Amino acid sequence: MSDFSNVLQVIGAMVLVSLLVQSANRKMNANSMLLVENEFESEIAAISQEIIEESRLLAFDEATVTGFVPVDIPAGFSDIGRDIAETADKVTFDDFDDLDGWSGIVSTALSDFNVSIEVVYIDKTTGIQTNAKTTLKEIQITITNDLVRFQNTTTLKPYYFSYIRSYYAE
């Protein structure tokens, strides 16, 4: 009878160890996924920061590209979007709002990221988007990656970034 109880104790111990190992594996897998997601998020933040820095180098508006001040501010500013001579290639952009509607793939050593940009006028009293021309423009950047999804789903996880630029801060 003593031999049989030893076998049961060994089986019980094996069950407990296997449960502990399974739990540890689950925790290690979750930590690995978190590390990978953090690496992607760092890369996404770097891409958005690069786009914002590129946009800050451009003139505020098409009317200010030559360095002259429009006669009527803000009514003298152009509409949001690219001008006729500008293509979808960012190297042809000469002012901040030319980035509006741009989308493309930014490739890094880590992966390819889908980027889309929208530029809007911002009402200076309410801080929200407006159709009227103002001295504030906001760039809104959305970045996704095929490998970054909401947890346990097939839905891509978008990352949003924005930057508000003032004509008078130049």
General description of the model:
With 170 residues, this protein is of the alpha+beta class. The chain has one domain (2-169). It has 1 helix and 5 strands; from the N terminus they run αβββββ. It has one helix spanning 2-57, and strands at residues 103-107, 112-122, 129-130, 136-144, 159-166. Strands 1, 2, 3, 4 and 5 form a 5-stranded antiparallel beta sheet that branches. Strand 1 and strand 2 form a beta hairpin. The chain is rod-shaped. The mean pLDDT is 91.
Total DSSP E strands = 5
Mean pLDDT: 91
Q: The biggest beta sheet, please?
A: 5 strands, antiparallel
Structural class: alpha+beta
* H/I helix tally: 1
Number of domains: 1
Helix content: 25-40%
**β-sheet strand percentage:** 15-25%
Query: Which residues form runs of ≥5 with pLDDT under 50?
Result: none
Report the C-alpha radius of gyration, rounded: 27 Å
Query: Element order, helices and strands?
Result: HEEEEE
End-to-end gap: 90 Å
Shape: rod-shaped
Keywords:
rod-shaped, alpha+beta, 170 residues, single chain, five-stranded antiparallel beta sheet
